[in-house]
C-alpha cells in the first residue's frame, strides 16, 4: 500500500481541507492507485539530468522583466468587492489570537 | 443570416457591405445562443450588455469609415476560467459561483480591441481539471454531435458552442490537453500555442508551468486569425514571450510538398482500432499532398502521464491555496477559528476532482516525498522535452492522435480517475515540452463520432502547424 488512511488525513491537514470519512476512504483508494502508477518513474535513469521547472526559451534574461515603473493599483474598494466579509477597508476573518 | 455557418470572413463581408450591422448580428447571435443552449448547457451565462456595447463600438468604427478590426463583429465565447470585468467568472466551481472579477484578462482586452463581440462564458471542468466536463459544479455539457456523450474537457463548453454554432469562435485553456481533446470530440479545430505565446494574465491559474490560452474555431483559418489577435508579449505576464507574431492566416498556402512529418511509434499501441484507422487514413492524405512521413521515437512517452500528474497537481495545490474563504466570495459559516474557516470553506467549496488533485499535489510536495516525486518528475520532463527537440532535428512537424478513443458516454468513466488520466497520453507530452499543438478534424467513426488529428511543431513555429492543418482540412472537406 502506497498511502494509508492516516496519511490521507495528515495530507488533508497540510492542504487545509476538511474531508468526510467517506471522502477520506475514497481518496485513500484513489491516491493509492495513482501513486502506484507514478512509481514507474523510478525506472527512468535521470542521473545528471537537470530538472525542468519552466519552459525555457533562448531569450535574453531581460525579456522577462518589465520596466520598474508604478502603475495604478486596483484600489481598496474593488479589491474588497468579492470579500465574503469586508470591514473598514479590510478582509475580516475569525479571531486568530486568544486573550 | 445563418448563424451556425458563420466564419470570420463572412461576418466581415456582411458588415462592410452593410448587409447587417454588428449590433443586429450580436442581438441575433444572443437570441440564437439563448434558444439553443438548453440542448448542451455549454454556456454558463450570456453577457448581453457587454456584447451589445462591443457591437456598438464596431458599428461606430464602420460608420466613421474605419476598419472594424480583424475580429470586427465576430460573436465569441470565452471559457469561464478567463476573467471578465463585471461578468461573473466561476471557473466551474461552487466556490466562485458569485465571483465578479474587477479586471479583464489580457486576451479579453485584445479580443475586444480587435472588434470581437463576447457573447458569454462557457462551462468547463472545475478549475479546468478534467477530461470530460463532468467536473463542473453547474452540470455537465452535452456533446452537440451526440447528446448522450461528453464534449471532452476541460474546455468542453468552448468546444461545444463552436460545434453547435452558438459562437463563431471561442477561447479555451489547455494545461494537458483541455483544448485539443474537446476539439477532437466535438469535431472542431482547437489550438494550444507555444507556451508563452499568449499572455495568461487573467487566466485563473491551475498549473502555471503548463497553462495556455488558445482558440477554438470551425476552420483552421479562423483559429489562426484569433491566435494572432491574442498573441504577443504582455508586461503583466512575465512568462509571455517577446517573439514576433507572424500573420498566421496569410501563410496558409496549402503548399506542404516536401515537408517532413514524424509519427511517434510509441503512440500507436495506445490507440483503439477505429481511431487508429482514421489517423492512418489522414496520414495517407498528407502523403498524397506531398509530405514525407517517417516514424520517429519519443522514448519517454510511457512516463508522461506520471510526470504530468505530479507536476500539474503540485502546482495546482499551490495555486488553489488562495481559495481560503478570505477574498473570493464563498466562506463556510461552520467553525469558530481561522483554521476551521479555511478547512471548512475548502472542504465544502471544492468538488471531488479538485480535492483529489490538491491532495495528490500536496502529497508529492510534502516532506520526504518531494525528491522522489516532484523533483524526479521535473527531471523526466526534461527528457520528454529533449525527445521532441531531437525529433525536430529530423522532421518539420509531428502528426499524432489526440485521444485514444472518440467521445465517450456521460458517466462512463467518472468512477475511475486513473483511467481518465491515462486517456490524456497523446496531449500531455506536447504540453510538458511547451510546443505548439493543435487538433484538426480527421473524419468520423462509423457511429458518426468525430476524431481529431494532432499536429505538433517546434517552439514558436505555429506557422508550419497551421499550414499543414489548413492543407489537411482542405483535403478532408473535399472527401
What does this structure look like?
The complex is a heterodimer of chains A (99) and B (479). Chain A has helices at 5-14, 21-38, 76-80, and strands at 86-87, 90-91. With 99 residues, chain A is mainly alpha-helical. A two-stranded antiparallel sheet of chain A has the order 1-2. The longest helix of chain A has 18 residues, at 21-38. Chain A starts with a helix and ends in an 8-residue tail after the last strand. Chain B has 479 residues and is α/β, with parallel strands linked by helices. Helices cover 41% and strands 13% of the residues of chain B. Chain B has an eleven-stranded mixed β-sheet, sandwiched between helices. In chain B, β2, α4 and β3 (117-122) form a beta-alpha-beta unit. The two termini of chain B are 27 Å apart. The relative contact order of chain B is 0.13. The model of chain B has no long low-confidence stretch (mean pLDDT 96). The interface between A and B is large, with 56 and 74 residues.
Top keywords for this entry?
heterodimer, A: 99 residues, mainly alpha, two-stranded antiparallel ribbon, 3 helices, 2 strands, B: 479 residues, alpha/beta, 11-stranded mixed beta sheet, 41% helix, 13% strand
Amino acid at each position: 500500500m502506497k498511502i494509508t488512511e492516516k496519511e490521507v488525513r495528515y495530507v488533508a491537514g497540510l492542504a487545509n481541507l476538511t474531508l468526510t470519512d467517506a471522502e477520506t476512504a475514497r481518496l485513500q483508494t484513489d491516491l493509492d492507485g495513482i501513486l502506484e502508477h507514478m512509481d514507474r518513474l523510478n525506472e527512468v535513469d535521470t542521473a545528471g539530468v537537470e530538472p525542468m521547472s519552466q519552459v525555457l526559451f533562448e531569450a535574453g534574461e531581460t525579456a522577462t522583466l518589465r520596466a520598474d515603473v508604478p502603475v495604478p493599483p486596483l484600489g481598496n474598494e474593488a479589491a474588497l468587492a468579492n470579500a465574503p466579509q469586508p470591514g473598514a477597508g479590510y478582509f475580516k476573518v475569525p479571531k486568530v489570537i486568544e486573550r | 443570416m445563418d448563424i451556425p455557418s458563420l466564419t470570420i470572413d463572412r461576418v466581415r463581408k456582411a458588415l462592410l457591405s452593410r448587409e447587417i450591422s454588428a449590433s443586429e448580428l450580436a442581438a441575433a447571435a444572443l437570441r440564437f445562443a439563448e434558444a439553443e443552449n438548453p440542448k448542451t448547457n455549454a454556456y454558463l451565462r450570456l453577457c448581453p450588455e457587454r456584447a451589445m456595447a462591443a457591437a456598438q463600438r464596431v458599428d461606430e468604427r464602420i460608420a466613421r469609415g474605419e476598419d472594424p478590426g480583424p475580429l470586427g463583429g465576430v460573436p465569441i465565447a470565452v471559457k469561464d476560467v478567463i476573467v471578465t470585468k463585471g461578468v461573473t467568472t466561476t471557473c466551474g466551481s461552487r466556490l466562485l459561483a458569485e465571483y465578479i472579477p474587477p479586471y479583464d484578462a489580457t486576451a479579453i482586452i485584445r479580443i475586444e480591441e480587435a472588434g470581437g463581440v463576447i457573447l458569454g462564458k462557457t462551462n468547463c471542468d472545475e478549475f479546468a481539471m478534467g477530461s470530460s466536463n463532468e467536473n463542473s459544479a453547474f452540470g455537465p455539457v452535452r456533446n452537440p454531435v451526440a447528446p448522450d456523450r461528453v464534449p471532452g474537457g476541460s474546455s468542453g463548453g468552448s468546444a461545444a458552442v463552436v460545434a453547435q454554432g452558438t459562437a463563431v469562435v471561442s477561447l479555451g485553456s489547455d494545461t494537458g490537453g483541455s483544448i485539443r481533446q474537446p476539439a477532437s470530440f466535438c469535431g472542431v479545430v482547437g489550438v494550444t500555442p507555444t507556451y508563452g505565446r499568449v499572455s495568461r494574465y487573467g487566466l485563473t491559474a491551475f498549473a502555471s508551468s503548463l497553462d495556455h490560452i488558445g482558440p477554438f474555431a470551425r476552420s483552421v483559418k479562423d483559429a489562426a486569425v484569433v491566435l494572432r489577435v491574442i498573441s504577443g508579449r504582455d508586461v503583466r505576464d512575465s512568462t509571455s514571450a517577446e517573439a514576433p507574431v507572424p500573420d498566421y492566416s496569410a501563410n496558409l498556402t496549402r503548399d506542404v510538398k516536401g515537408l517532413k512529418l514524424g509519427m511517434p511509434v510509441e503512440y500507436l499501441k495506445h490507440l483503439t482500432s477505429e481511431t487508429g484507422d482514421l489517423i492512418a487514413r489522414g496520414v495517407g492524405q498528407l502523403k498524397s499532398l506531398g509530405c514525407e512521413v517517417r516514424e520517429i521515437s519519443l522514448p519517454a512517452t510511457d512516463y508522461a502521464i506520471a510526470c504530468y500528474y505530479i507536476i500539474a497537481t503540485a502546482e495546482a495545490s499551490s495555486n488553489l491555496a488562495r481559495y481560503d474563504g478570505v477574498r473570493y466570495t464563498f466562506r463556510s459559516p461552520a467553525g469558530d477559528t481561522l483554521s476551521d474557516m479555511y478547512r471548512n470553506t475548502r472542504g465544502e467549496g471544492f468538488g471531488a476532482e479538485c480535492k483529489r488533485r490538491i491532495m495528490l499535489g500536496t502529497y508529492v510536495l510534502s516532506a520526504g516525498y518531494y525528491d522522489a516525486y516532484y523533483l524526479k518528475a521535473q527531471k523526466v520532463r526534461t527528457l520528454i522535452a529533449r525527445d521532441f527537440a531531437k525529433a525536430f532535428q529530423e522532421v518539420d512537424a509531428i502528426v499524432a492522435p489526440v485521444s485514444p478513443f472518440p467521445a465517450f458516454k456521460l458517466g462512463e468513466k467518472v468512477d475511475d480517475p486513473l483511467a481518465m488520466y491515462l486517456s490524456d497520453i497523446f496531449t500531455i507530452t506536447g504540453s510538458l515540452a511547451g510546443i505548439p499543438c493543435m487538433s484538426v478534424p480527421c473524419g468520423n467513426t462509423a457511429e458518426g463520432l468525430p476524431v481529431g488529428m494532432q499536429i505538433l511543431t517546434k517552439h514558436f513555429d505555429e506557422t508550419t502547424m497551421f499550414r499543414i492543418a489548413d492543407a489537411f482540412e482542405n483535403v478532408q472537406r473535399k472527401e
